[in-house]
Amino acid sequence: DAEITQSPRHKITETGRQVTLACHQTWNHNNMFWYRQDLGHGLRLIHYSYGVQDTNKGEVSDGYSVSRSNTEDLPLTLESAASSQTSVYFCASSPGLAGGYEQFFGPGTRLTVL
Amino acid sequence: DQQVKQNSPSLSVQEGRISILNCDYTNSMFDYFLWYKKYPAEGPTFLISISSIKDKNEDGRFTVFLNKSAKHLSLHIVPSQPGDSAVYFCAASASRGGSEKLVFGKGMKLTVNP
Prior knowledge:
The complex is a heterodimer.
Chain A lengths: L3 E4 L2 E4 L5 E7 L5 E8 L3 E10 L2 E4 L6 E3 L9 E3 L8 E8 L9 E2 L3 E5 L1
Parallel strand pairs in A: 2-11
Antiparallel strand pairs in A: 1-3, 3-8, 4-5, 4-9, 5-6, 7-8, 9-10, 9-11
Chain B lengths: L3 E2 L4 E5 L4 E7 L6 E7 L6 E7 L4 E4 L2 E6 L4 E6 L8 E8 L9 E2 L3 E6 L1
Parallel strand pairs in B: 2-11
Antiparallel strand pairs in B: 1-3, 3-8, 4-5, 4-9, 6-7, 7-8, 9-10, 9-11
């Protein structure tokens, strides 16, 4: 069955370290998204991609970067982790305009920055 | 500026009764609306959607109503079941503008008591 996976599921790191969160989908979806979920803020968009080599900033992109070298993967990198980036991170994908706007979410990665 | 608002953080109902979850939006460009359900330690899952060309969409126990003039939508769950206890997110997209992003509300926690 097609799916979207995230790894690791839990990560503890120290301030200043570089961290990369993986996202892999097997639906062959064009669109991929990264969100963070924080109490009182809901889901906020970090970065998104509409296809290979395409990346765009979301509303809370500072301190994060992404790259899209193939259809299946959109890794999220925290260049220098900060305590404010402690959060739960969700990756999602969607088919694109022709296939619908519904996004399918991964199980999440809980990141703690000490 | 919050474009999608879920003003009530929580709702508690008895099993078998109706649950009504509300959502307001401010961006008149939004033309596609979705509801997601999220259990703890899991990613959000798509529940139901509605296009702005409709004012109602029904799927089993779930019905979404859209009032474009009031920029308001609601999700009705009838009858409510304990398994419906979760956090519900309202989301919107401005598809006519070519955007495939979703803007999410902050979520509302529904508790259905046996």
